[in-house]
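Go through this fold for my students:
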Amino acid sequence: MRLPLRFQPAVYDNLEPSGRATDFVVQEVLPERRKVRRNERKYLWDVGYEVVTLLTDKGRVQVAASPETLDSLVELLASGPGTPS
């Protein structure tokens, strides 16, 4: 798996982009997930969020989202570039 992604930070309630976008290439998705800890929920309003770890060309990236959204992300990454999911 080598899928390029662009991460655009968004903060605030209106989800306006904030900061510079970062491009990286996902090399592997680690299968383990964990719940977002209480002290990590600064901008996360849902207590059911989970974290998945991506190994990328720029290091480890942790993504937090609902379990359903993480399922979709992992499925998209597994399908590879140019392949519709």
Observations:
- The beta strands are 3-7, 22-35, 50-56, 59-65.
